[in-house]
Amino acid sequence: MPSQPSATLETFANPQPDRDYTIRMTIPEFTCLCPKTGQPDFATLELEYVPDKLCVELKSLKLYIWSFRDRGAFHEAVTNEIVDTLAGAMEPRFMRLAARFNVRGGIYTTVVAERRQAAWKAAESVVLP
């Protein structure tokens, strides 16, 4: 049997813990169930984070995201649950998750949740000519 969904996230040591850098991931096949109707909800998740000591291992992230497929969850709740779980596992300097749900009843929903370490400050943006 191939891989199974899993709620366990694996991490590995950040190879550059003394540097701020951003990791961005697009996860285009997120699904969960509408808790009211039981119908599937589809979303693209856009995850970005500045790691501190740990990074998330990609296969475990895929299996974790897969674990929502048969669960009923409101868009707002599932987005916050995912960012809380990821932030709890990695303790990143900064994390943002944008969940862009497909149209449902003529309405597109995007939920954005962020977490940051209290002392962390983002570097100034650089605009090149």
Please outline the helices and strands.
Elements: E1 11-13, E2 23-33, E3 40-50, E4 54-56, H1 58-66, H2 75-90, E5 94-104, E6 107-116
Antiparallel strand pairs: 1-4, 2-3, 3-5, 5-6
Describe the model:
By secondary structure, this protein is α+β, with helices and mostly antiparallel strands. It has a single domain, classed as GTP cyclohydrolase I, C-terminal domain/NADPH-dependent 7-cyano-7-deazaguanine reductase, N-terminal domain (GTP Cyclohydrolase I, domain 2), CATH 3.30.1130. The chain has two helices and six strands. It has helices at 58-66, 75-90, and strands spanning 11-13, 23-33, 40-50, 54-56, 94-104, 107-116. Strands 2-3-5-6 form a four-stranded antiparallel sheet, with helices on one face.
- Low-pLDDT runs: none
Largest sheet: 4 strands, antiparallel
- Report Rg: 16 Å
Order of helices and strands: EEEEHHEE
The secondary structure category is alpha+beta
- Whole-number total of structural domains: 1
**CATH architecture descriptor text:** 2-Layer Sandwich
β-strand amount? 35-45%
Major sheet strand order: 2-3-5-6
What are the key terms here?
129 residues; GTP Cyclohydrolase I, domain 2; 4-stranded antiparallel β-sheet; two-stranded antiparallel sheet; 2 helices; globular
Quick synopsis:
This protein is of the alpha+beta class and 129 residues long. It has two helices and six strands. The termini are far apart.
